[in-house]
Design a protein that fits this description.
- The chain contains 6 helices and no strands.
- The two termini are about 25 Å apart.
- The protein has 2 domains: about 30 residues, no CATH class; about 30 residues, no CATH class.
- It is globular, with a radius of gyration of 15 Å.
- The C terminus is likely disordered.
Amino acid sequence: MANYKERLLDKKIEKKLKSTGGILLKGVRFCGKTTTALHHAASSVRFDESELIREQAPLVPKIVLQLTPEKAAKCTSLNFVIAGVE
C-alpha cells in the first residue's frame, strides 16, 4: 500500500502475527481496520466484494482462501472457484 500511514499498533500487530496465525482488529467504522489488516496481510480474500465468493466460502473454504485477489475477481461460477480459476 503506497499511501499507508503508520499506526501506533503496527509494531504490536507484527509481533503478535509472528507468534499467532492471526489477530482480530476491532474498532468503530472507518477507523482504518481494513487498511491496517491489508497492510500486514501476506494475502487476503475480500468477502465483501464478491457475492459468489461469499456464497461458496462455506462450501469450499480451503479453495476460496487460496484464491489470489486477481483470481477471485475472475470468479463467475462455482466451476471457476473449484478449478482455482485457471
